[in-house]
Amino acid sequence: MNSERLYLGVDGGGTRCRVRIANASGDVLGESVGGGANTRLGMDHVFGEIITAASLALKNAGLDDSRLGDLHAGLGLAGLSVERERKLAYAHAHPFATVCFATDAYTACLGAHDGADGAILIVGTGTCGQAIIDTQELAVAGWGFEISDIGSGARIGRGAIEAALLAHEGLVEKTDLTTEIMAKFDHSPEKIVAFAETARPADYGAFCPMVFDLEYSGDAAASGLVKNAVTANLQILRKLVAFGAPRLSLMGGLSEQMAKRMPSDITDILVPAKYDAMHGAILMAKQRESIVL
Description:
With about 290 residues, the chain is an alpha/beta fold. It has 2 domains: about 5-115 and about 275-285, ATPase, nucleotide binding domain (Nucleotidyltransferase, domain 5); about 155-265, 2-Layer Sandwich (Nucleotidyltransferase, domain 5). The chain has 12 helices and 9 strands. It has a 5-stranded mixed beta sheet with strand order 3-2-1-4-5, sandwiched between helices. It has a 4-stranded mixed beta sheet with strand order 8-7-6-9, sandwiched between helices. A hairpin with a 4-residue loop joins strand 2 and strand 3. Helix 3 (about 105-110) crosses helix 12 (about 275-285), helix 4 (about 155-170) packs antiparallel against helix 9 and helix 8 packs across helix 9 (about 220-245). The longest helix has 24 residues, at about 220-245. The chain is globular. The two termini are about 25 Å apart.
């Protein structure tokens, strides 16, 4: 195995970092999971998570850390759509043989369609649409929790907290959702303020399952939040179709919830992802393995 070419595929999202080690034939040798690897968490943090996860994946493959330098790495990272973050990523020291970077949406799209034309919408803690058509690419949304990603779990969760505060102050009607959210904070707006001072998107996203649970029971606040998210994600999907995507795949923790709420013009061309984002990252590494940093 010492002479075998090894590839590392990284799917770095806002909540977790998944890595896979494979050989040139595509055989999976080892995998592992680490913490969030959105570039906005800082490059030291991101590379720390990746290296830790890669070390564990090597161990799971029956190899040791001395092989880190043999890995040809493809890194798909959330947050890499910003040029500043791309420059920081390429400038950061790493232990790998070679490394190349793209957004997590790009590698997810490569994996979903195994390099063929198509588009994906990642909808989980954040959202991002990506199409790859011949040599053309289109990325939609994915600009961050604060100003984008309207259909994401993080924005749904934040919306639930906002609605709870409004209801607590008598500005809108209380519902089961708003009452349960306030109970999480002991019915104290001050505790919500303290939470918001340090909360990351994944912290807001933790409230998203509650919203979907209560939406099923007809809760007005929950229904409104889900409807807004569906509308936002539908706009992204239709933009990708207009760009020329012949097929779509939904990926991420909210993909099933969104898929069953889409109209027929979208569901008619929805296909299951062939492979995951780690497969796409390895495919990218193979395509770009001449890049040596």
